[in-house]
Amino acid sequence: MSKLVLVRHGETEGNVAKILDTRVPGLPLTERGAAQAKTFGANLPAPPQALFCSAALRARQTAGYIEAATGVPVQLLEGVHEVQVGDLEGRNDTAAHDTFLDVYHAWHEGDLSRRVPGGESGHEVLARFLPVLEDLRANYLTDADAGDILLVIHGAAMRLIGRTLAGVAPPFSTNNHLDNTETIELVPRADGGWDCARWGRFTPPFSYQAAPTQDDPMG
User: Fold this and answer.
1) Catalytic: which of 82, 120, 182, 185?
2) Nearest-CA neighbor of 107 among 119, 96, 86, 123?
């Protein structure tokens, strides 16, 4: 079955320093992040039928390494950049992390009207993401045997998409952060919905309840 595979970008200095880095273009990959992207591309069981990424530098670099490994040209998509944290941009202190996570967790609990100070509401994030994903579905995922499509994007946005499209509920969706180059795999259903086949290192049922962490608030 062809899947939409959401791939988190490789490691950046912002991830290492726990910086809320969301504005485009953002920080580049570290050497470790580049190695992660190369390994991810080399370990794919088959080349994707199409490869896409957000406009953020870290996503473009990650996708570039996947392109080099698979030969599939990367295409940039607008509207799929990370959740915008507004006034919290560039901060790495506990207060900033707590403020962001309070709003972000509220989105997963159903209150999409909450807004990051100076940044986005959950409704706004989904309003720019969901039409792009539906276009990808219509254009690439109508044939079950055509192959996967890969979209290199960002951790917080990915988890909100997995929550919204596939119904993966909190506390799993809020507590299980994604490491760099981990994936969420979404399988289109005949009724127009989606099933989640993988969330990072986990497969269904998604009942594992990790303790919440601040190791990487955007992961």
Assistant:
1) 82
2) 123
